[in-house]
Amino acid sequence: MIAATPDELMIAAAAAELAGVRTVFVGIGLPNAAANLARRSVAPDLELIYESGVVGARPTRLPDSIGDPALVSGAAATMGMRDLFGGFLQGGRIEVGMLGAAQIDRWGNLNTTVIGPYDRPSVRLPGSGGACEIALNARRVIVVMNQSSRSFVERVDFVTSPGHRRPDGSGSRPAWAGAGPTAVVTQLGVYHFGADGEMELVGLHPGVDEGTVDAGTGWPMRRAGPVAALEGPSPESLETIRRLVG
Amino acid sequence: MSSKVVTLREAVAAHVHDGDILAIEGFTHLISFAAAHEVIRQGRRDLTLARLTPDLVYDQMVAAGCAAKLVFSWLGNPGVGSLHAIRRAIEAGQLEIEEYSHHGMVARYAAGASRLPFFPLRSYDGSDLPAANPLIRRVASPYDGEEIAVVPPLNPDVTIIHAQRADADGNVQAWGIVGVQREAALAARRVIAVVEELVDATVIRDDPDRTLLPGTVVDAVCVEPFGAHPSFAQGHYDRDNAFYRDWDAISHDPARLSAWLDEWVLGLDGRAAYADRLGPDALAALRPEPRPSGSVDYGSYR
Question: Residue A140 has what pLDDT?
Answer without folding.
Answer: 97
